[in-house]
Amino acid sequence: MKKFLLPLCLVLGGSLHAQISGPHNEAYTIGNPDTPCVTAAQREAIFEKLARAKQDLIEKGILPNPQTSLLGGGGPHPLFEWPIEKDPAAPYTAVWGLSNYVDHNASFPNQIQDWNCGTKSYDTSNGYNHQGMDIFLWPFSWYQFQNNYARVIAAAPGTIIYKDDGNFDMNCALGGGDWNAIYVMHADGSIAWYGHMKSGTLTAKGPGDTVAAGEFLGNVGSSGSSTGPHLHFEVYNNAGQLVDPYVGTCNLWTSANDSWWAAQKPYIEPKINAVSTHSGVPTFPTCPQMEVTKYKDSFLSNEVVYAMVFLTDQTVGSSGLLSMKRPNGTIAFTQPFNSTTAYNASYWWWSFGSASFDTYGLWTLSFSYNGNTVEHQFVYGSNLAVGDLQTETKVRFYPNPARDRIAFSEDVATLDVFQIDGKKLQIPHDGISADVSGLPNGVFLLRGTTASGRPFTSKLTK
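and the corresponding structure tokens:
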């Protein structure tokens, strides 16, 4: 059975794929580590750094003295937003999954109890009980890492009291060195730790600077003791006591109905992270090499299309539906999806040969799961695709999706717009940009020539 390590302080698992001829399973198994994300010595060093940094900011008058203000001495705790968001350029619906919560069972090893009385955490034989929550990247964690698709944001407003940067950020094994991290103090004196971040991406702000809730702090990395890109989020109250921000039966630290989340997420949150088309099944090289995604959105009439779905928190008994729509909107293929196994992260694939496509043009791949539907569009075989879209073009435009106007990466001489049904439209353009405000919402193909006479075709979403 094939195994690989997904990004977090410990290894999580669960991936499988299926094709039309029948599901094929490759289970990616969980392996519990015997090394903490942050060693006892590293944690003690962090506490000492934070104490010195906080005192320095108090003496400079940047932080109020806790003897004369609420800061560090009380007041309502913050209500956190989710600390990760996808970059607008990320070609996904979601970029993360959650592997570990705080372990509330002080015994060890393998005696685990999270806030919901489950075992979604870990401990080690030397007495470490996981003290934060791990949010890993999915799909293609190293591809996301390289492209900065997962952004760490401030979960609540506060003041940066310390940050570490410049440490190696592509670790694949536990027991690594120091991490890159930002530590934010809130108005009540509580402190949130954001760890394992990508070197060189941390905000230019430093100790004493304030951040707003949702403000960019950096990108997800794999610095410190880590098997791959993920965020470790850890919280302490104003008395220096570890906090589990979730309200649940087995979290005896937090009063009932006193969640530290503005909107507490469910214990398990099944979701579609991505729906996409590929030239083949992706490969996962040895960490930290970037995955070979084999993404492809335009196919010649004799090519095979690999339709893929990436899920997180897949539960036993969950069901979904895969379908493909022709360019005219009619259904060409549909197949139910039924899960008999639970996975933290999984992918499924179906392959479609040329016989599956009875017309050329812009097709729509659709997947419905857990009450949500995600669509992905690709071109198959039409004269809009054969040729131009099969070659690498250097003509790019932004933003995409667009609302009012797009700007081109090089001068454009001619420009036509095609709807899904093939109808040709015209939009105003001045050679360096185009006005798309008059187009209805939907997907279009832009076809034209550059000022140098080179033809190009690109997909526009509005």
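(Above: one complete record from the training split.) The domain at 40-243 is CATH 2.70.70.10 (Glucose Permease (Domain IIA)).
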